[in-house]
Each structure stands twice: as structure tokens, then as C-alpha cells.
Amino acid sequence: MPALLKCFYLYNQRINAGVQQRGNKTCVTFDSLNSLTLEIGMTQCVDFRVIQPDGILSASVAKLMLQEFEQYYQQHIKVILIDLQNVAMIDSFGLGIIVSMHNKLKLAGGKLYICGLQKQARFLFDISALDRLFDILPDQDAFHQALRENSLV
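Given the sequence above, the corresponding C-alpha cells read:
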């Protein structure tokens, strides 16, 4: 089996390495160093998508958002973030679509996250107790940070 070129970061230093599987062992060659046999622990990589509607999340916008969700769902994406930072208002239809997407993804073993809630949307989530159903983050940066720290999923 041919060696694969991988890039590792060790103490923020980029290290190129050739990785080759030999039976149940992984042989790693770092740049011009001798070959070493290492047991390599893998960090879980999360494939996610972001849906970012704009304006008022009413029937027409919610239907477009649902189409985008269905596309990701068919691709077996298990983590979806809905960024509502550009949404000034959500009506009951839009809220129902978000709950529907959450339920469908949860049944498939996935998770739907929400970020960027504006005042009206935050109020709506609070009074409907949906703030207890969803993991709500302040913004996409907080979502990415939580992914890096493996505190999501």
C-alpha cells in the first residue's frame, strides 16, 4: 500500500509525514527522520453545514430553508447550524419548520444548532420553551470554537 502524505501540527509547527498502514500498525515517517511505528489517536471530524436565512422567516423563506435542509439531509449531514443573525422576525410557520428540521435530524442521529438569535427570535424561543430544546450559541464563532473543543455532538 502506498504511503499517504499527511500534515501534522506539533506545538503549532507544521510537520509533513508519510503514513503507511502495515497490518494493524501505522508506520509514520516524519520528513527525513527514521520510520517510527506509532499508535495514532484520531480526533472526530464533524461534517456540518450552515443555513443562513435573511429577512423575515415566514412561509416563503422557511420553504427555501427547508429545501436547503433536505439537500443536506439527503447527503447524510448529521450536524446543521441555523444562523439567524440576519433574521429580524420569525413567524409561527418559520418556527414550525425549524422544529420539524430538528426532529427529523434527531431521528437520523444528528443534531441541529441555532445561533445569532435577534431580539424577537430570542423572545419567541424563550416563551415557547424552545430555548430548552435547542443548543443555542451566540454566533458562528462560538459554534466553531465548541467544535474545536469537542463540546458539541
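Residues 62 and 116 are 17 Å apart (CA to CA). Try to locate this feature in the C-alpha cell string yourself.
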